[in-house]
Amino acid sequence: MNSRPSLSRRVGRRRAVGAALLIGCLTTALLAVDGDKAMYVGGTLAGLKEKTEGRLVTTSDLTLTFDAGSKGSATIPYATVTSLEYGQKAGRRVGVAIMVSPLALFSKKRNHFLTIAYKDSTGKEQAAVFELGKNIFRTTLKILEVRTGKEIELQDNEACRQFKTPKECEGK
User: Fold this and answer.
1) Parent domain of 113
2) Has residue 1 been placed in a domain?
3) Which of 76, 81, 49 has the alpha carbon at shortest distance from 60?
4) pLDDT digits over 91-120, tens only?
5) What residues contact 163, with CB distance under 8 A and at least 6 apart?
């Protein structure tokens, strides 16, 4: 008696593994903010719901605009910004793995978070937290530093290594 599985069983297993990999990859891609977009995570911006995806528009010399299309927009004058903070978290995708595929446990996601503190027109302190896409976070941070005149506060060494050169991160 041959202990090897039949050809049809081997093909079936390969298809199942292939389907699991495909589902894991697609789910991973769907959960991340698009590389060239941003997501309003939360804060005190009026008229925007948490977890609204859109674009951060930095083309104006005077204002930063978050444009979420039909879901709304918000504008922050650069002159009113009191601080900028960047950080990231690298977390294993446990929720995805449990719900869809154990293979998702082996994918690592880096989130790029920007916190903007600013004063509104009445002088009251406000804040907005955005998750930035992987293709825009460095450029956006540099533009904000230049236009606001504020240095980006980095949450930790990992954030420093993502935004600055290794030499600039020495001793931090």
Assistant:
1) 7-169
2) no
3) 76
4) 433 344 344 445 444 545 678 999 999 999
5) 86, 137, 138, 141, 152, 154
